[in-house]
Amino acid sequence: MKGICILGATGSIGVSTLDVIARHTDLYNVVALTANNNIDLLYEQCLEHRPEFVVVVDEKKALAFTEKLKNSPVSDIKVLSGADSLEYVATLDNVDSVMAAIVGAAGLLPSLAAAKAGKIILLANKEALVMSGDIFMQAVAESGAQLLPIDSEHNAIFQCMPAGYKSGMHAKQARRILLTASGGPFREMPLDQLVNVTPDQAVAHPNWDMGRKISVDSATMMNKGLEMIEACILFAMTPDQIQVVIHPQSIIHSMVDYVDGTVLAQMGNPDMRVPIAYSMAWPERFDSGVEPLNIFDVRRMDFEEPNLERFPCLRLAYEAIKKGGIIPTILNAANEIAVEAFLNERVRFTDIPVIIERCMERFEAKPANTLDIILGVDQQARLVSEQIINELYH
Ligand code: NAD
Ligand code: MG
After folding, report:
1. Which of 12, 278, 337 to mutate to test the pocket of ligand 1 (most atoms within 8 A of CB)?
2. Of 60, 96, 101, 369, which one is least surrounded by beta carbons within 10 A?
3. Domain count along the chain
4. Using one digit for the tens of pLDDT, what is the confidence trace for 168-182?
């Protein structure tokens, strides 16, 4: 029986993880659930999964949650609040696995704490890795933590790696990674119409049902840019070894091209419970609840090269990883601010890459060798991005 802590339990990945756990209550015991503020959903999850701890980051919501638990069937659950409590529950002795599914930079400290504590980390929170690649992988190596990627593409690549592969190793027989992308909802929209895209249109992804931030990232293809950086870090590859491939059906979730000409692909229905179940059962396999793939319904699979004029965010991500140092942290922070501003209708869809590019231009590629540097630069880039938004609209 493994103890699991789910960081970001109320999000899209958190909900899918609990769905998988409900099928395997003989193998997994939920020790802790965390949420930012959705206490109604968290309450339902507590009734079903009976964790020992919950963290509600927002203090007022945490008080309201404590009230809600009084006289309930789950009144014995310990309720904590504040961001520090995330690190506390991610490193508890009876936690073996940590699902890192908080969105954005907010997930960095607890994910890193789990890495330092030598946990099995099921990593969905790609932003944490983009911000702190070297430090994160060093923490994993030093503590002997096991890092299993949840992002469907990286999970696919991991599955296509040689037997005995561990995250962070360089598989020298693998010459290239083919990182697939759906192309999002605007793959075929005339370029001059992108400026009028609304948040509702941007979050309506054709193949995947995800949180709002990653859905916008998929529409701009910054998601693929972050994933390209994530792949460089996880699989010890150079950016030139990672080819992004637009594959609109989202049936192949990525491929590894070997020196002998073999290309291995992982396929399946586009449902995050597949990579979640793979990582939870690893090195075995178990039922994820996902329907078997009906290959006759798929009928055809298409592949095309991404157009960097349509998707400037992808170009910016390649620039950021090639410059290295703190620049991927800047890219991530500027993107988080720009996407939030777009979702709040303060900027247009096509402003997103403009804000990120201008922000990147204002920083030099200094080394990102301590956590303090990374957190400091993250804050600075957020302020600079806000200034750029003000410059654009005043
Ligand atoms: P989501 O918005 O649905 O959920 C985010 C979760 O994080 C929620 O539980 C929320 O309470 C929590 N959270 C948000 N801000 C927080 C903060 N400041 N402090 C503490 N907790 C906070 O997001 P999601 O779609 O589940 O994505 C989660 C992560 O997984 C992201 O990094 C995303 O890139 C990655 N991912 C998601 C999918 C997907 O299909 N949804 C696929 C691949 C990777
Ligand atoms: Mg992905």
Report:
1. 12
2. 60
3. 2
4. 999 999 999 999 999
Residue nearest to atom 9 of ligand 1 (CA): 8
Cα(115) to centroid of ligand 2, in Å?
A: 21
Lowest mean pLDDT among 51-55, 122-126, 202-206, 305-309: 202-206
Nearest to 236 by CA among 124, 142, 129: 129
R_g (Cα) of the chain, nearest Å: 20
The residue contributing the CA closest to ligand 1 atom 16 is 36
CATH of the domain at 24: 3.40.50.720
How far apart CA 227 and CA 56 sit, in angstroms, is 29
- Tell whether ligand 1 has an atom less than 6 A from the beta carbon of residue 36: yes
Ligand 2 centroid from CA 123, angstroms: 11
- Give the pLDDT confidence of 259-298 residue by residue, as tens digits: 999 999 999 999 999 999 999 999 999 999 999 999 999 9
User: Ligand 1 pocket, 151 CB below 6 A?
Assistant: yes
Ligand 1 in reach of 208 Cβ (< 6 A): yes
End position of a domain, from candidates 149, 182, 211: 149
What are the tens digits of pLDDT across the range 166-217?
Answer: 999 999 999 999 999 999 999 999 999 999 999 999 999 888 889 999 999 9
Cα 119 to the chain's mean position, in Å?
Answer: 18
0.90 surpassed by pTM: yes
CA neighbours closer than 13 Å in the CB half-sphere of residue 61? 17
pLDDT of 208 reads: 84
Q: Which domain holds residue 357?
A: 324-394
Q: Is residue 248 part of a domain?
A: no
Q: Which atom of ligand 1 is nearest to the CA of 212?
A: 2
The pLDDT value given to residue 206? 84
Q: Are 278 and 285 in contact (CB under 8 A)?
A: yes
Domain end residue (candidates: 149, 181, 199): 149
Which ligand approaches the C-alpha of residue 215 most closely? 1
> Mean pLDDT across the chain, nearest whole number?
97
Q: Does pLDDT of 315 surpass 90?
A: yes
Is 296 a domain residue?
no
Examine residue 162 and say whether the peptide bond preceding it is cis (omega within 30 degrees of 0).
Answer: no
